[in-house]
Amino acid sequence: MHLGIGAFHRAHQAVVFDDALNAGDLRWGVIGASLRSPDVRDQLVPQEGLYTVVIEDGTQRSLRIVGAVQDVRVAADDPASLVEVMGSPEVHIVTLTVTEKGYCLDPASGSLKLDDPAIAADLSDLSTPVTAPGFVTAALRLRRRRGLAPFTVISCDNLPHNGARIRSAVLEMAGRIDPELHDWIAAEGAFPQTMIDRIVPATTRADIEELSVELGVVDLGMVKTEPFTQWIIEDRFAGERPDFARFRVQLTETVGPWEDTKLRLLNGAHSSLAYLGALAGLDYVHQTVAVPILKAFVERLWDEAETTLEPPPDLDIAKYRAELMARFSNAALRHRTHQIAMDGSQKLPQRLLATAAARLSAGRPIPALALAIAAWMRWQEGRTEVGDVVVVEDPLATETARRLAGATDDRDRVAALLDLQAVFPPSLSADPRFRKAVLQAFLDLRSLGAVGAAALPIEEPA
Ligand code: CS2
C-alpha cells in the first residue's frame, strides 16, 4: 500500500516492486492512494496501472514499463474503504510519499501539530481519516481489532529521522484515542528509517507529448527521471517483505549517517539553487549550475556542510559531491527551480538550518549557508529580481507574507522571519552570529542580486 502516489513513488519504490515481480516473486503489487487529488487515479486506472518510466542520462533516454501498480484510489473519496484495504492481511508494507507537510508536524520541532484542523478532525473521529498519520493509525487500530500483525510503515519523504517522526506522530495520535492501541503499536509496530534518492521532476504536458510521438500511444501516467536511484532501509520489519537486497535496495542497521549526508548535501544544495536561481530568473536546475558563480557557490556550501557530517564509512564524499554536480547538470531532466522552491518552510530546517547550527556550535562561519537562507527569505517576498511576480507555494506563505508586510525595512523583515519559531529553532535564531550572517546576506542579495551576492569573496570572521 502506498500513500501519496506521485511521480516520485512511480519512479522509485514502485520500480523496486516491479523488479520483484520481474524476478518471479509474484506476491507483491502496489495499491496506490492519493490523499485528495483524483489526477493520478484518472491517469492510471484507465491504463490498468501501467506507465512508462523515461530514464534520461543527459545524452540518451531509455524506457521501461512498470506493472506493479494494481489499483489507485483517492483517499478522500472513501476514507473508510481505504482503511479497510490497509487493514487486510494481504497488506504487509505501507510506504508514504506525502511530502514534508503531509505529516502535519511542526517543521522546527517535529512534533504533531495538534492545532491543525485536519489533525483535530482525525482525533475526534478516526473512522474517516483525513491525514496520512490518521490513515496509518486507523488502519493499525483495525488490524489490532482483527488480531493481525501491524504492517511495516516506511516514510519515503525527505524528513529528518523519517521513521521516528511518523512513528511518534502515530503514537501521539493513538495515545490520545486509545492508550492500549498506543502500547500495542509501540511494542509491535515497525517504522524503519529510510533514505531515498532519485531526482524526479514533475511530468509536463510536453513530456507526455514527446513520449506519445515515440510510443504511438498517449501515456498520461508517465514519469521521467535520471539513471541514479538509491534506497536504504533499516532492517526492522514487522512482517513480510520482498528480498530487497536482490533489487538494489540496501538494508542496514542505521540510516542516520546516510540521511544527514543526503539531506545536507543534495537537498541543501537543491534548495539553495532553487531560491538563488529562481530569484535570478533561471527556470531549471541545470541552468543554475551552468552559471560558474553558482556552481562555485554550491561547492562552498558543500565545504561548509561537509564539516558537519559523519558520513557513512564506505562513502567517498569527494566522489559523492562530483556525482551530485553531474546529476544537477543533467539538462534532459528540466527540473524546475520553482518546483524545488515549494514548501521551503518545511524543508529549510533539515536542509540548511541544522547544518548552520552545527557549524556555529563548532565555532565556524556560515557565509554560504546564510546566503541560501536569506534567498529563501527573499523568495517569500513573491517577486524575482527581474520583477516577475511569483506565487509562494508554502503552507506558511500567509504567515511569512503577513510578517513581511508588517516590517518597515530589510533589517526588520529579516528579524520578523527569523522569529518564526515554526521554522527557526529559538536556540538558532537567538544566536547573534546567525542573525548577523543572515541579515548581511539578505542585504547583499538586495543590492547585488543572487549571482552578485554569490560571487562575493568569503570574509573570514575577525
Ligand atoms: C528536491 C527533492 O523537490 C525537492 O525539494 O530537493 O525532491 C530531490 O529531488 C530528491 O530528494 C532527490 O532524491
Give structural notes.
The protein has a five-stranded parallel β-sheet with strand order 5-2-1-6-7, sandwiched between helices. With 462 residues, it is α/β, with parallel strands linked by helices. The protein has helices spanning 7-11, 13-22, 39-44, 79-86, 117-124, 132-145, 162-177, 179-188, 205-215, 256-279, 285-289, 292-306, 317-328, 337-341, 344-361, 367-379, 397-405, 410-418, 426-429, 432-454; strands at residues 2-3, 30-34, 51-56, 61-66, 69-74, 93-96, 152-155, 194-197, 223-225, 230-234, 249-252. It is globular and about 60 Å long. The mean pLDDT is 97. The protein has two domains: 2-252, 3-Layer(aba) Sandwich (Rossmann fold); 256-455, Orthogonal Bundle (N-(1-d-carboxylethyl)-l-norvaline Dehydrogenase, domain 2). Helix 10 (256-279) packs antiparallel against helix 12 and helix 16 crosses helix 20 (432-454). D-mannonic acid is lined by residues 158, 197-199, 266-267, 270, 339-340, 347.
What's the gist of this structure?
The protein is an alpha/beta fold.
Gross morphology is globular
Which small molecules are bound? D-mannonic acid
| Percent in strands | 5-15%
What is the terminal separation in angstroms? 56 Å
What is the name of the CATH topology of the largest domain? Rossmann fold
In total, the number of domains comes to 2
Q: Helix amount, in percent?
A: 40-55%
Largest sheet: 5 strands, parallel
- Residue stretches low in confidence (pLDDT < 50, at least 5 long) are none
Number of strands: 11
Walk across the major sheet and give the strand order. Answer: 5-2-1-6-7
Structural class based on helices, strands and sheet pairing: alpha/beta
Q: Can you give the mean pLDDT?
A: 97
Count of DSSP H/I helices: 20
Global Rg: 22 Å
Provide the CATH top-level class of the largest domain: Alpha Beta
Please tell me the CATH architecture of the largest domain by its name: 3-Layer(aba) Sandwich
Under CATH, the homologous superfamily of the largest domain reads: NAD(P)-binding Rossmann-like Domain
